[in-house]
Amino acid sequence: MRRLLAASAAALLLSSCARGPAPLVVASKPFTESEIVGEMIAQLAESDGVKVERRFYLGGGVCFAGLKRGDVDAYVEYTGTGLVDLLGEPPRRDPAEVFARVKKVFKKRWNLTWEPPLGFDNTYALVVRGGYAKKHGLETISDLKKVPGGLVCGFDLEFADRPDGWKGLKAAYGLKACREIRQMTPGLMYGALSAGKVDVISGYATDGRIASYGLKVLDDDEHFFPPYQAAPLLGPNALKKDPKLAAHLQALAGRIGGDEMRALNAEVDAGHRRVRDVARDFLAAQGLLRK
Amino acid sequence: MIAFFLRDRAEILRLTGQHLFLSGVSLGLALLVGAPLGVLLTRRRRLAPWFLGATATIQTVPSVALLGLLLLLPVIGGIGVRPAITALFLYALMTILESVYAGIVSVSPALVDVGRGLGMTELELLRYVELPQALPVLVAGLRMSTVLVIGAATVASYVGAGGLGDLIFRGVGRGDADMVAWGALPATALAVVAHLGLTALERRLARRRA
């Protein structure tokens, strides 16, 4: 027993020492979409014969913390998150302006590189049941004022407190306070909404479950939500480990539109397909993966 | 449920292995550090409240918060297996330290005096009197920290250390109950098996002593 423990401790220490070239570490945030696009980056690098280590489904700010320390080489971040959460700047409306801003400041402050956006914009979206929208005549977020009584709101843990979340939204639209706010992880919100446990949720525009559960995204008529374009964020060593990665990401840029991303998310969340199969099929169909 | 297992059994097995590895190494390190330190504290009893207080305080920090703090530390922190093992080690340390200390302190002073009277050295006293008398308490402590660590190891997934937490968090995120179940079931099974095994050991030791 003692010997076994000592051996495993020694193995652990050895495994942390470098053996051969260090792998390219690709990370993802804790939701399906982030994992799918992370897997795409991983497979593109592997097609160059580069050894890749996947660190997927990491907690909240773990990807970014890891990138800053050099534990992570690449993950897909959202420009709005970069601007508001990571830089602490006020939201801006114009997607190109937001991208230019984060690209410039991240490079200067942390030597991190934003590659061109993938195409889709996964902004926050207020989502209601299709039947509920019909009953109260809801098309836009402004229409929520027409609903009698207070709303039971299902928000993810960040949305309730963020300045670019419920706090700001309520002020911008002049909405009443929620009758009750139930905080839950994003994965549970769609089911809770569909089951009638809550009236409105802070969903994500590209979630595959919006279509599969027959939900309705309310139009952001005051253009409150800032753009959340998805784009690869690279650490200083990423291109040293795979010099061809930049060219791959250039080719991937703009290829994944909102509809494509929704469909890919649905294949995993509703269709229960494996992330690596979904990512590989997409890359192959786009002619980006030569093998 | 069965279909999920059949399709992903290789993955479930791999993650169960990782889970065992994380729990085993953390417990092993906690034993290597906690047991001698616990004995040392019984020889310097004035220091004991400080150490026991410090490790007990660490144990009250929620695991996710502890991992969040470790993210920022060099060497033992960051992302991957190391911060996870550091956190689990700290959790296990308290129970082990406490049980070693309490076990030895509770040995009847009369027995210790008899040993001294026989001319035993400190080491012999420890080896032939104190440790054998304290053993059931030690094993009980080991059992508690084992179950604790196996449960807490699910959170290792948060910093990319793998383990069965991968299935649990992914399953919750995707609204996939089968995936959650196949993360939770093996983790529960590991904890139950460890609990039963160490309880049996505890009983045998208690009987041998009686």
Strand order of the largest sheet of chain A: 7-6-8-5-9
Radius of gyration of chain A: 21 Å
Task: Report the major sheet of chain A.
Answer: 5 strands, mixed
What is the name of the CATH architecture of chain B?
Orthogonal Bundle
Count of β-strands of chain A: 10
Total of DSSP H or I helical runs spanning 4+ residues of chain B: 8
Name the structural class of chain B: mainly alpha
Tally of structural domains of chain A = 2
Mean pLDDT of chain B: 91
What is the CATH superfamily classification of chain B?
A: MetI-like
**Cα-to-Cα separation, first versus last residue of chain A:** 47 Å
Count helical runs of chain A.
13
Structural class of chain A: alpha/beta
Radius of gyration of chain B: 20 Å
Looking at the chains present, what oligomeric state does this protein adopt?
A: heterodimer
Helix content of chain A: 40-55%
| Name of the CATH homologous superfamily of the largest domain in chain A | Periplasmic binding protein-like II
Q: What do these coordinates show?
A:
- The complex is a heterodimer of chains A (291) and B (210).
- In chain A, the strands form 3 sheets. A 5-stranded mixed sheet of chain A has the order 7-6-8-5-9.
- Chain A is an alpha/beta fold and 291 residues long.
- Chain A is globular, with a radius of gyration of 21 Å.
- Helix content of chain A is 43%, strand content 14%.
- Chain A folds into 2 domains: 23-121 and 228-285, Periplasmic binding protein-like II (D-Maltodextrin-Binding Protein, domain 2, 3-Layer(aba) Sandwich); 124-217, Osmoprotection protein (prox), domain 2 (D-Maltodextrin-Binding Protein, domain 2).
- Chain A has helices at residues 2-16, 32-46, 62-69, 79-86, 95-110, 130-136, 166-173, 186-194, 209-212, 238-241, 245-252, 258-269, 275-285; strands spanning 24-27, 52-55, 74-78, 113-114, 124-129, 152-155, 180-183, 200-204, 215-217, 230-234.
- Chain B has one domain (2-209): Orthogonal Bundle (MetI-like fold), CATH 1.10.3720.
- Chain B has 8 helices and no strands.
- In chain B, helix 1 (2-43) runs parallel beside helix 8 and helix 4 packs across helix 6.
- Chain B is elongated, with a radius of gyration of 20 Å.
- Classes of the chains: A alpha/beta (291), B mainly alpha (210).
- Chain A binds chain B through residues 4-6, 8-9, 12, 15-16, 27, 30-32, 55-59, 62, 65-66, 69, 71-72, 185-188, 190-191, 209, 268-269, 272, and chain B through 21, 24-25, 28-29, 31-32, 64, 67-68, 71-72, 78-82, 85, 157-160, 166, 169-170, 172-176.
